[in-house]
UniProtKB/TrEMBL annotation:
InterPro entries reported for this sequence: PLB1 (IPR038885), SGNH_hydro_sf (IPR036514)
Protein name stated in the entry: GDSL-like protein
One of the GO biological process terms: phospholipid metabolic process
SUPFAM superfamilies referenced in this protein's UniProt entry, alphabetically: SGNH hydrolase
GO molecular function: phospholipase activity
Amino acid sequence: MHYPSLRFKGDARSLTKEPISREAYKANLVEAISVLRENLNRTIVSIVSMWNSQLIFDAQSLIEKGKRMQCGDHYMEKRDILCNEYRKVAYEIQNERKFDSEDFTVVVQGVMDNIRDAFRNKDGAYDKSFYAEDMFHLSKYGNAVIGKFLWNSMLEPVGNKSDNVNLGHDFIPLKCPTKKTKHDMIE
């Protein structure tokens, strides 16, 4: 299987000065899902919508200084708008139902959609334990917390998914799949 437009070596970690447009982002996502649909059956493609940038980009500044990172030139505003547009694209693709068939569908997991701040613990204080040493990536703990909320979201019905979780409530139990949740996952 060869797809000439997919350039993993050149695209995987490239950072460009110009952001990828909403339209290009959607085209790339549609192309990727098309590849999956052509090559997989009995598949639920679960898209984690774009996180609010403050969770990662501003973490160090919020935790150490108590305020968002300052970059000037309206960078932060542009970044936040673009992240929001990318998030909307994921939902558009899900709601268009273009990829839905008897054995394939696309579902957005918007569990992080309404988180607009760096991680705070259960007492409400900013907490570095959620982040790796570089304060840009997540720690094992951060990945575990998000993984738990993501798992629970995957077992919720489309249109009724949690989208405003409190990451500081890491004691939330994991949900167990049932025959009903299996049906709800794809409806």
